[in-house]
Design a protein that fits this description.
Layout (H helix, E strand, L loop, with lengths): L1 E3 L36 E10 L3 E10 L8 E9 L7 H7 L1 E2 L3 E5 L3 H13 L13 E5 L14 H9 L18 E2 L2 E2 L2 E6 L2 E2 L2 E2 L2 E7 L5 E3 L2 E3 L18 E8 L5 H17 L9 E8 L14 H21 L3 E2 L5 E2 L4 H9 L4
Parallel strand pairs: 6-7, 16-17
Antiparallel strand pairs: 1-2, 2-3, 3-6, 4-5, 4-17, 8-9, 10-13, 11-12, 13-16, 14-15, 18-19
Helix pairs in contact: 2-3, 4-5
């Protein structure tokens, strides 16, 4: 195995959506256009590759000093519950998050949860902790990776957590996105942010996706398929092995109930990108409030700009996950092609039929 700790940036190797002039919505972005624009949020990846059969990994989203003694308000929404989102029942019941959120491969999720518990129990102030709710999401990367090998181990989880940092976030074939694909193309990790004004105050909302779902890609409303881009048709993952995990973070003054409403919008945003929401696609979003001390939450009637910000950020994050990814050949010789930026732009210039 070849573990690769947190990668500072995948930017500069392949263009992001905005680099190509593909702008989703009218709202402004944070300086990095990433979930790490939300103050205190850090991201870490460990990529696990053993060519040709293993293309997997783990991604950690670490909001501030989250822990059992410093929980954060959070909400979760299941668009389709065909998945193994560990920790969801307590999160739903209490509306609080007490660990980082980790993303990985389906059959590695349970090992990752155990490693997260071990790491948390070693944190300062946790010496007497006897109950802990780890939150781990997953996607099935079995099309490109030998998922039964369960290649993600404790050392990979700890490397992602210990290496988590602010700043630019690596996207595409990295961490939990190493072996995933979406909408007929190689995909992976993607991120974006928005800075809406809420109740007279500027706030930040960021999204990170682990994209692995079926459907037909839509870019600015235009359907885009491998065939229309002149790519060789290849067998694609069956819809029943799909999924998408979305993590949203915001410093807006909102409570757990309102964060659950944000999580719903995050899943709704996948429809903009062409998601099919198939029987076997586990589509989940977790929304985290990073400023529990911000005071009384805004009224529900004031949430409109934040809803729109989340919709736009998730849509752009999915596009970034596709554009950052590279063509990958993996388990049993299966291949998922990258979304070619030049051909995509040409297709977008062609008048729609």
């Amino acid at each position: 195995m070849e573990p690769m700790a947190h990668v500072q940036s995948a930017q500069g190797t392949r263009p992001r959506a905005r680099d190509l002039g593909i702008v989703v919505g009218q709202g402004g972005t944070g300086p990095l256009n990433a979930i790490t624009d939300v103050p205190g949020v850090r991201v870490g990846h460990t990529t696990v590759r053993r060519p040709p059969d293993v293309h997997s990994g783990v991604t950690a989203v670490v909001p501030g000093t989250v822990g059992p003694h410093s929980p954060l308000p959070a909400g979760v929404f299941s668009g389709n519950g065909y998945g193994k989102l560990i920790g969801t029942t307590q999160l739903t019941e209490l509306g609080t998050l007490e660990t980082p959120v980790l993303l990985t491969s389906t059959l590695s999720a349970f090992r990752v949860a155990d490693a997260l518990v071990g790491w948390m129990l070693e944190r300062p102030g946790c010496g007497e902790v006897q109950s802990l709710n780890p939150v781990v999401g997953e996607c099935n990367d079995g099309f490109l990776s030998d998922i039964r090998a369960r290649p993600v181990h404790e050392e990979h989880v700890r490397a992602a957590l210990d290496g988590a940092s602010g700043g630019a976030v690596a996207e595409g074939c990295v961490g939990a996105g190493t072996g995933t694909g979406a909408l007929g193309f190689k995909a992976g990790i993607g991120t974006a942010s928005r800075t809406p004004e809420l109740a007279g105050r500027r706030c930040t909302a960021g999204a990170l996706v682990q994209a692995n779902f079926g459907g037909t890609l839509r870019v600015l409303g235009r359907c885009v398929t491998p065939r229309c881009l002149g790519l060789t048709e290849a067998p694609a993952p069956v819809a029943e092995t799909g999924s998408c995990m979305i993590v949203v973070a915001t410093d807006a003054p909102v409570d757990a109930r309102q964060l659950t409403r944000l999580a719903r919008r995050a899943v709704f945003a996948l429809a903009r990108t062409g998601a099919a929401y198939s029987h076997g696609s586990g589509d989940y979003a977790i929304a985290i409030g990073t400023r529990p001390e911000a005071g009384a939450p805004v009224t529900d009637a004031e949430l409109g700009p934040l809803f729109e910000a989340v919709l736009d950020a998730v849509e752009e994050a999915v596009l970034n996950s596709l554009l950052a990814a590279t063509t990958t050949t993996g388990f049993r010789g299966r291949t998922l092609p990258a979304l070619p930026a030049d051909r995509l732009l040409e297709a977008l210039k062609t008048p729609a039929l």
